[in-house]
Amino acid sequence: MDDRLIRLSAALAVPTRFAIYRHVLNTPEGVSVQDVADKFGIHPNVARLHLSRLEEVGLIVGEIEHTGRGGRPGRLYRAVDKSVSISLPHRDYETLADIALTALERFKHNGEQMITAVAEEKGYDLARRYLEEHDLKPETLTPEEIVEHVRRLSGDPGLSPDVEPIDEDAFRLAVHSCAFKEQAFQHPTVCTLHHAYLKGIFRAFLGRSDLIEEQSMIDGAPVCRYIAVRLP
C-alpha cells in the first residue's frame, strides 16, 4: 500500500474525524470550524485540528471566507471533488467497473429495461431484508421514520443523501456526494442504475411508487435531486 493510502486510512480511523468528513461531504456550501464545533459538541480548537488533518491528506480543502465584516477572516472547508477508495489488499474496482459499464452500454440499446429492472430489484431486495431484520412493517411507519430508514439504506453505498417528507405519500431526496461520480461522467448508465436502485428502496417502503429526477450532477447541477411519490 502506498504512503498516501496509509495516511488516508490513519486520518479516517478516528471516529469523530470520519464523522466530520461525512458532514463536510453532506454540506456542499462548506463548513467552518465553529460549524463543526457546534455540530459535534467539541471545542473549536479540536474541530480545527480535525479539519486540518483532513486537509493535510487531501480529503477536504479550506478557503478564506470573505464576509465583508471586520476581524480575522475565517475559513470554509469543502470536500474535494474526487472520491477516495481504500481497500486491503488493493483492489482495482475502477477498472472492473469500467469494463462492466462499457459492456452494459453496448448491450443497453437492446436491454435497457432489463438493466434497470435488475438495479431496481437490488434496491428493493436490500430494503426488504432491512425491514425484516429490524422487524419493521412499512405500513406502520411514519414519514419521519421512513426518512431515517431510507437515509441509512441509501447512505451505505456512499450516496450521502438528504431525505425529507413532503407529505405521507411523497419524499424529497438530495444526493450531495456520489461514490461513483467519476464513472458517471464517463458512463451515463451509472445514473440510470442509481436511479433504479433508489427507486427500488422507496418501493419497499411505499409500495407502488415512482422516483422523479429533478436535477442531476451530470447536467451541471451541484447535487442530484429526486422526488419519490406513492402511486394510487
UniProtKB/TrEMBL annotation:
Taxonomic placement: Bacteria, Bacillati, Bacillota, Bacilli, Bacillales
Span of domain Metanogen output: 144-226
Entry annotated with the keyword DNA-binding: yes
Keyword DNA-binding among record annotations: yes
Transmembrane segments annotated in the record for this chain: none
Entry keywords, A to Z: DNA-binding
GO molecular function per UniProt: DNA binding
Top-rank taxon: Bacteria
Coiled-coil residue windows: none
Protein name in the entry: Helix-turn-helix domain-containing protein
